Backbone:
C-alpha cells in the first residue's frame, strides 16, 4: 500500500474543507480524482504534501505503511511524494537546471548519498528533457518566470521524471496544455509508471484520462469521496456532470 | 611554471625572517589614544621618510577639525577615538611550516565556506597578500609578477621602494580632507596593498588580499592603492574575515584606484567582518572610502558582496574624468539580525560619452536595515553621458527594512538616465514549492537569494563567486523560523 488516508478532516483559516476523506492507493495503480470547483481536491494534494497552512484535525495519512503526519514537507518529498502544482511558483534567477540539480542532490543527501556526479546529472537531464520534448534552451531559463501555462505544466512533469517519485500527485496538470503537449506529457507520465509507484491524477476532463488510463476514479464533493468507480465513471461525469451524483447523495439522506 | 604549495611554504618560511618574527609572538600594541605623537610614532615604527610623516600629520590636523558624518541611515554608539589603539603587530605569528598553519580562525572560516586557503592556492591563479592585523605577513607570487614589471606589495614597502609613485598618487583620488574616516585613515593607516601595472600589461592572475582583524581593541586602517598604467588590465580581489568578538571594532579603510588611458581595473570585494551576534551585540563598524579615477577610455568595475559588519558605510565610486570612460558598480548587501548597511555608489560623469551602470541587490532579514544610497552626477561638459541604475530589494520577514536613496544631478541635457527599483519578499509559496521538491527552508532561501543576486555574482571571478555564494547562505542562517 503506497497511500492510505483514513477519515481525514482538515481546516484552513477556520474553514472546514475535508470532512472524513478515505482513499487507498496501491503500488502500480493510477487513481483519478474529479470533483466540482472548490470541493477540496487541491487541498487534499497539499495536505498529502505537508503544507502547513492546512490543519489536520482528525484522521491519518500513511505512506508505505508509515504515518507521515509529523513529517515536514521536505521529509515527505524525501520519502517519495511528488506534487505537480496546479499553479507552479516563479523563482527568479534560478534556472530549471539548477533547481532540479539542487532538488535531486537534497533528496540524495537525505538518503545519505553523495551529490550526483555532474556527468550523470547531465545525462539524466538530457534523457528526460528528450522524453518530454523540452528544448535545451528552456532549461537555462529562470524557473517558471515568464513560462506559458503549458510550459509550466510540462516543466512540472519534467521534474517528476527527474525525481522518480513513489507517489506522484498531478493537480490539473492537463489544464493549459494544448493537444500535442497533452499527449507528450501523458506519454511521459505513462513511461514513468511502474509496479512500484503510484499516480493520483486530479482533473476535470476525460481527455487526459484517454491517455493516462486510471484504474480507479473518485469523485470528491464537499470534503469527502462520495463515489468511486472504474475508468468508465469519468466518461459518465464527462457526459452528465455532477448533478446526478449530488442527487444520489440527497436521496441517501 | 606552476607555483606549488611547497614553494609557498618555502616563501613563507623565509618571509618570517624578512619581517623579523621570532619565537616570541607577543603583540606589540601602542597605548590607546590618538595625538600627534602617536601619528609620529606609527610613522617611525614603519621607518617612513619625513614627507610621509608630514603627510600623516597634515591629515591628522585636518581630522581634528572634522565631524563624524551623520547623514547615513544608521544608528550606533559613536566610537570613542581615544579608546582605540592605533598600532598593533600580529600577536601570534604562526610557525607556518605549512599553509594550514596560517591561522586556525581564518582557516576555520575558509573551511566553513568550503574553500581552504590552501585549496585556493592550488586551484586558482591567486596571488595572496595576507594582511594580518596591521603588518603584511607574506606576499606571494612576487616573482611571476616581477617578470611583467608588476608591483604588488604591502604599501609600507612601496613607500620605501617607490616613493615617487606614492607621492604622485596617494591621496590623489581620496584626498586626506575628503571625509572624517578618510582623514583618520590617512593619519594612522597601518598597512595595506600597493599595486602598479605597467603600460600595456595585462596582469596574468587575479591579485588578492585577505584582511582580518586579529586583536581585540585595535582599529584596522588599511590603505590600498592600485594604479593601472595606460592600456593595462588588472583584476583585484579583496576579502576579509573577522573572528567573533564582543566589543565593537572600528574599521576605516581607504582604497584608491587609478585607471590611466585605456586601462581597466576590476575590483571585487567579499566583506564578512563580524556582524555582531543574533542580539546585536558586538560587530565591526565598517566605514570605508573607495574611489576610482578613470582617464580617457578607461574602465573601473566595483563588485562587492557585503555580508558582514554591524554597521556598513561604504560607497565605492567612480570619477569618469576621461572621455568615453566607463564606471560599473555591482553590489550585493546582506543584512541580518541587527545589522545596518548604508551602501551604494557615486558615479561622477565629467568626460564626454561616459557610461555608468549600477546594479544593487539588497537582502534584508531579521531586524536589520539595508539602505542603498547612490548618486549619479552628470556635469555640464559631459556630453552624451549615460547611466543605468537598478536597485532591487529582497525582504525576509516583517521586521527588517529596505530603503533606497537615489540622487540624480544632471547639468547636461544630452544625458540619458534610467533608474529601476523593485522590492520583493520571499513568499511562503516559494518556500513550500522548494520544500515539496525536498529542499529545506535554509537551502531554499539560499537558492532564492542566489537567484536574486545572480547578476552580481556572475560578475565575480569564479573562485570568489563560489565563496560568495556560500557566504550568503551562512549569513542568512537562522533567518527563518
Ligand atoms: N488558504 C485558504 N484559505 C481559505 N480558504 C481556502 C484556502 N485554501 C483553500 N480554501 C478553500 O477551500 C475550498 C477547497 O479549495 P481547493 O483548492 O482544494 O478546491 P479544488 O477542488 O482544488 O478546486 P478547483 O477544481 O477549482 O481547483 C475552496 O472553497 C477554497 O476557497
Ligand atoms: Mg484545485
Residues:
Amino acid at each position: 500500500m503506497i497511500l492510505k488516508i483514513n477519515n481525514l478532516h482538515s481546516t484552513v483559516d477556520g474553514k472546514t474543507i475535508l470532512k472524513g476523506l478515505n482513499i487507498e492507493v496501491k503500488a502500480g495503480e493510477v487513481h483519478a480524482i474529479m470533483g466540482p470547483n472548490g470541493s477540496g481536491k487541491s487541498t487534499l494534494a497539499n495536505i498529502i504534501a505537508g503544507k502547513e497552512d492546512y490543519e489536520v484535525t482528525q484522521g491519518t495519512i500513511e505512506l508505505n505503511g508509515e504515518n507521515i503526519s509529523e513529517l515536514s514537507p521536505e521529509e515527505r518529498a524525501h520519502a517519495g511524494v511528488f506534487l505537480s502544482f496546479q499553479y507552479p511558483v516563479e523563482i527568479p534567477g534560478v534556472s530549471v537546471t539548477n533547481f532540479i540539480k539542487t532538488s535531486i542532490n537534497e533528496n540524495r543527501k537525505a538518503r545519505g548519498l553523495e551529490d550526483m556526479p555532474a556527468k550523470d546529472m547531465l545525462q539524466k537531464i538530457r534523457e528526460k528533457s528528450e522524453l518530454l520534448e523540452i528544448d535545451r534552451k528552456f532549461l537555462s531559463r529562470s524557473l517558471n518566470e515568464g513560462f506559458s501555462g503549458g510550459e509550466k505544466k510540462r516543466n512540472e512533469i519534467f521534474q517528476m521524471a527527474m525525481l522518480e517519485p513513489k507517489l506522484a500527485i498531478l493537480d490539473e496538470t492537463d489544464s493549459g496544455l494544448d493537444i500535442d503537449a497533452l499527449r507528450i506529457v501523458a506519454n511521459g507520465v505513462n513511461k514513468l509508471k511502474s509496479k512500484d509507484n503510484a499516480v493520483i491524477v486530479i482533473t476535470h476532463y476525460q481527455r487526459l484520462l484517454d491517455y493516462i488510463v486510471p484504474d480507479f476514479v473518485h469523485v470528491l464533493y464537499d470534503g469527502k469521496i462520495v463515489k468511486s468507480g472504474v475508468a468508465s465513471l469519468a466518461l459518465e461525469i464527462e457526459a452528465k456532470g455532477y448533478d446526478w451524483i449530488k442527487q444520489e447523495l440527497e436521496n441517501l439522506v | 611554471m606552476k607555483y606549488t604549495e611547497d614553494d609557498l611554504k618555502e616563501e613563507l618560511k623565509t618571509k618570517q625572517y624578512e619581517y623579523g618574527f621570532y619565537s616570541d609572538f607577543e603583540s606589540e600594541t601602542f597605548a590607546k589614544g590618538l595625538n600627534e605623537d602617536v601619528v609620529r610614532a606609527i610613522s617611525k615604527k614603519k621607518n617612513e621618510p619625513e614627507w610621509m610623516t608630514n603627510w600623516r600629520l597634515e591629515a591628522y590636523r585636518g581630522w581634528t577639525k572634522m565631524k563624524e558624518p551623520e547623514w547615513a541611515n544608521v544608528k550606533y554608539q559613536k566610537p570613542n577615538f581615544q579608546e582605540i589603539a592605533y598600532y598593533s603587530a600580529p600577536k601570534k605569528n604562526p610557525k607556518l611550516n605549512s599553509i594550514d598553519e596560517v591561522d586556525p580562525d581564518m582557516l576555520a572560516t575558509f573551511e566553513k565556506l568550503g574553500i581552504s586557503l590552501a585549496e585556493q592556492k592550488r586551484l586558482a591563479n591567486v596571488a595572496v597578500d595576507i594582511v594580518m592585523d596591521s603588518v603584511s605577513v607574506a606576499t606571494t607570487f612576487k616573482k611571476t609578477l616581477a617578470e611583467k614589471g608588476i608591483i604588488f606589495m604591502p604599501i609600507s614597502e612601496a613607500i620605501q621602494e617607490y616613493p615617487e609613485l606614492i607621492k604622485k598618487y596617494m591621496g590623489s583620488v581620496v584626498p586626506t580632507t575628503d571625509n572624517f574616516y578618510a582623514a583618520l585613515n590617512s593619519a594612522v593607516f597601518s598597512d595595506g596593498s600597493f599595486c602598479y601595472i605597467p603600460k600595456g600589461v595585462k596582469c596574468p592572475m587575479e591579485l588578492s588580499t585577505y584582511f582580518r582583524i586579529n586583536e581585540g581593541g585595535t582599529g584596522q586602517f588599511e590603505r590600498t592603492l592600485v594604479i593601472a598604467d595606460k592600456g593595462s588590465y588588472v583584476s583585484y580581489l579583496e576579502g576579509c574575515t573577522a573572528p567573533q568578538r564582543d566589543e565593537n571594532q572600528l574599521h576605516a579603510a581607504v582604497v584608491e584606484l587609478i585607471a590611466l588611458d585605456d586601462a581597466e581595473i576590476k575590483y571585487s570585494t567579499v566583506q564578512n567582518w563580524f556582524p555582531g551576534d543574533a542580539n546585536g551585540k558586538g560587530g565591526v563598524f565598517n566605514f570605508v572610502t573607495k574611489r576610482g579615477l578613470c582617464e580617457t577610455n578607461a574602465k573601473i568595475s566595483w563588485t562587492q558582496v557585503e555580508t558582514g559588519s554591524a554597521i556598513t558605510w561604504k560607497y565605492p565610486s567612480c570619477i569618469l574624468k576621461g572621455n568615453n570612460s566607463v564606471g560599473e558598480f555591482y553590489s550585493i548587501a546582506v543584512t541580518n539580525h541587527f545589522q545596518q548597511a548604508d551602501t551604494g555608489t557615486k558615479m561622477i560623469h565629467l568626460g564626454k560619452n561616459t557610461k555608468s551602470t549600477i546594479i544593487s541587490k539588497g537582502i534584508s532579514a531579521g531586524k536589520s536595515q539595508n539602505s542603498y544610497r547612490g548618486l549619479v552626477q552628470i556635469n555640464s561638459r559631459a556630453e552624451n553621458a549615460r547611466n543605468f541604475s537598478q536597485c532591487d530589494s529582497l525582504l525576509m520577514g516583517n521586521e527588517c527594512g529596505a530603503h533606497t536613496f537615489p540622487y540624480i544631478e544632471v547639468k547636461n541635457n544630452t544625458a540619458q538616465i534610467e533608474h529601476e527599483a523593485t522590492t520583493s519578499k520571499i513568499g511562503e509559496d516559494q518556500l513550500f514549492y522548494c520544500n515539496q521538491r525536498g529542499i529545506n527552508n535554509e537551502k531554499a532561501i539560499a537558492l532564492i537569494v542566489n537567484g536574486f543576486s545572480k547578476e552580481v555574482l556572475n560578475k565575480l571571478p569564479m573562485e570568489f563567486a563560489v565563496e560568495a555564494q556560500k557566504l550568503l547562505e551562512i549569513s542568512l542562517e537562522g533567518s527563518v523560523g
